[in-house]
Design goal:
Elements lengths: L1 H17 L7 E8 L3 E10 L2 E11 L3 E6 L5 E8 L9 E6 L2 E8 L8 E3 L2 H32 L3 H28 L5 H8 L6 H10 L2 H4 L2 H17 L2
Parallel strand pairs: 1-7
Antiparallel strand pairs: 1-4, 2-3, 2-5, 5-6, 7-8
Helix pairs in contact: 2-3, 3-4, 4-7, 5-7
């Protein structure tokens, strides 16, 4: 009888351990096709510097998992250490939020192949970047033409190109403002304000701030937006 009791207790204890839930509110998992050995880092920006939140060693298995605690939805970065010189294709940004996020990509095209699911904020960020990339391409084309105009010393063409470049910037800023206001119930709204259009006319920042829901207003980027507006108003009133 005693042996049976001990056995039952063992089963109960084992079951309790196996059902123990993580005390972390964010799970990041994924696969990097072709990456068999190296190190991954989950990073965040703190005081303008990237700092590591977690370090993951990869040795033979391309799958990875990381469990973290975040106080608020936040832009994080998956950095891959290939063991060679760093390149622009080594750091993958993703907008993290509590829950389960999955990242699938490849070693050869680390950022361009990336498919990220499990975050509504990241879904909106991807949508935003898709449109803004057109403005970036247009600006690069203008820069190329300005270089040619500079070489030929054609001031009239240069003046025209400057006006076109200013127009592109204005369209980007207005699009960003509208996107933030239209998605003011997500943390992507204040993030875009502080990361993309921090120097826009204050009335637009105020518009975004006033459109945010209470929970977004209290988030990390919501607080940063309020601090930015306060700082801008102080400087402009001097």
């Amino acid at each position: 009888m005693q042996k049976i009791t001990i056995a039952l207790l063992t089963i109960v204890l084992f079951g309790s351990c196996s059902e123990k839930k993580s005390d972390k509110n964010l799970e990041i998992s994924g696969t990097i096709k072709g990456f068999k050995k190296g190190t991954l880092y989950i990073q965040k920006i703190k005081d303008t510097v990237l700092v590591a939140l977690d370090t993951i060693q990869i040795n033979g298995d391309s799958n990875f998992i990381s469990e973290l605690n975040i106080d608020s939805p936040e832009m994080l970065y998956l950095f891959i250490d290939r063991g060679v010189t760093n390149s622009v294709d080594n750091n993958l940004p993703f907008f993290a939020e509590p829950g389960k996020i999955k990242i699938e990509t490849s070693l050869d095209f680390f950022t361009s192949d990336a498919k990220i699911s499990g975050s509504k904020n990241h879904e909106l960020y991807t949508e935003y970047r898709g449109v803004v990339s057109r403005f970036v391409d247009q600006d690069l084309e203008i820069v190329k033409k300005k270089f040619d105009a500079l070489k030929s010393k054609n001031d009239k063409v240069m003046e025209s190109l400057n006006l076109k470049q200013d127009a592109i910037v204005k369209r980007k800023y207005l699009y960003t403002t509208n996107f933030a206001v239209n998605h003011s119930d997500y943390e992507i709204a204040p993030y875009l304000a502080v990361a993309e259009i921090y120097d826009i006319n204050l009335k637009y920042l105020d518009t975004i701030d006033k459109s945010m829901t209470p929970s977004v207003s209290k988030s990390l980027y919501g607080k940063q937006l309020k601090d930015l507006i306060k700082e801008r108003k102080t400087l402009e009133n001097k």
